[in-house]
Amino acid sequence: MLRIFAFTTALLVALSTIANATCGTRGGPGYRDPATGKCLSWAEFSYRCGPDGSRCQPEKPSPLIKELQQPAADPHKLMERSHGLSK
């Protein structure tokens, strides 16, 4: 009975941690889509949020957002940098 209680408690803690993840903690730009409420990818950010992100709700904005606003910015390179894959 104690094992079942311990397993259930660990499962509830793990599920609540996953559910509370904020946008930007896994390498995205850190903004939510205002229409769907889902986290946006780097490729969708400018289209959905505008160049400055003012149309979306920031949760944990990436410092790389400023680079995305430059004309020659490549969202795929920013995604790789945010995951630590390139510099």
Description:
With 87 residues, the chain is mainly alpha-helical. It has four helices and two strands; from the N terminus they run H-E-H-E-H-H. The chain has helices spanning 2-19, 42-49, 65-68, 75-82, and strands at 31-32, 57-58. It has a two-stranded antiparallel ribbon. The longest helix is centred in the N-terminal third of the chain and has 18 residues, at 2-19. 20% of the residues are buried. The mean pLDDT is 76.
Structure summary:
This protein is 44% helix and 5% strand.
Strand order of the largest sheet: 1-2
**Helicity range:** 40-55%
What's the β-strand tally? 2
> How large is the radius of gyration?
17 Å
Shape, principal axes of CA atoms: elongated
Could you tell me the strand content as a percent range? under 5%
What's the structural blueprint in terms of helices and strands?
Layout (H helix, E strand, L loop, with lengths): L1 H18 L11 E2 L9 H8 L7 E2 L6 H4 L6 H8 L5
Antiparallel strand pairs: 1-2
Descriptors:
single chain; 87 residues; two-stranded antiparallel sheet
